Amino acid sequence: MDIELGEVQAAFADIIWAHEPIGSGELVKICEKELNWKKPTTYTVLRKLCEKGLFRNEDGVVTAVISREDFHASKSEKFVEDNFEGSLPAFLAAFMSHKKLSAKEADEIRKMIDCYKEG
Question: Which three-class secondary structure state does DSSP give residue 58?
Fold first, then answer.
């Protein structure tokens, strides 16, 4: 998945993910309050994100086609692929070069590795 979101679209997507399924009228009210948007702006951005395949608006009810978790996981995978030739160890080495792990963080990472290890 290669869906790019600008800052405004990302804020809007977060609102939908937090409230879905949500009626489009209710979405307009939330966007007016949180983003200071008028109704046409909400519908324009919603239409664009539906065209990108992120959300669906059926009979005035907006739902996610892709969950927030799946979206961010895909973006993370693409970042590692684009910047570290797909090497998770290279990414972790770069990330950790300026940071120390707490014992709790190290334990959590070990558990994740054990959980996801092949074999």
Answer: strand
C-beta of residue 60 within 8 angstroms of C-beta of residue 71: no
pLDDT confidence band for 96 (50 / 70 / 90): confident
User: Token digits for 97?
Assistant: 């070069």
How many Å apart are CA 1 and CA 16, to the nearest integer? 19
In the predicted structure, residue 104 carries a pLDDT above the cut 90: yes
Question: Where in 59-110 does DSSP place strands (E)?
Answer: 61-64
pLDDT value of position 92? 86
Using CB atoms within 10 Å of the CB of residue 25, give its burial: 0 to 12 exposed, 13 to 18 middle, 19+ buried.
exposed
Q: CB of 101 within 8 A of CB of 108?
A: no
The pTM assigned to this predicted structure is 0.73
